[in-house]
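Continuing the batch. This is chain 6 of the set; chains 1 through 5 are on the previous pages. Same settings as before, nothing changed between runs. Recording input and output for traceability.
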Amino acid sequence: MTYKAAKNKLLLERIGMAPFVWLGMGVGYLFPLKSKHKVFLFFPNADIGGAPKVNADITALLQHDNPLIIFSKKPHNNQYLDRYTGTGLKIMDLHRLIDNKLFHFVNFFYRGLLAAWINQQARPVLFGGESIFFYKVIPHLRKHIRCVELTHVDAW
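Output for chain 6:
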């Protein structure tokens, strides 16, 4: 694929997903998040492994900031879930809703919904730990919102 073809494809994708993102943003502003969060943590899941262990440790360190934990991928074993639930923090496991190619428009909707909720917070910080969904939400945020990515593997 040439660069020009890739840019055209990206433009068509953005046009196609825009109504769903806008709908999600509208719902997000009509029904704001009931709790306040300074930090939003985007993780794929709580499977056992080195990266999820580091993600859980970071969650424990940020516990005083009342982070919202967002899981986006179907777990294989979820054996580190107790490390997250043990903190008493709010967890949104969206994998059943957004990790389905047949209903990918729902993924677009949740990008807008989460972006609206994040945009309503005072000085929020997004933290992504190996989460592709983290990158999908970023374009819909206000430009001054701080986004931090922890890369566990340099293969990306």
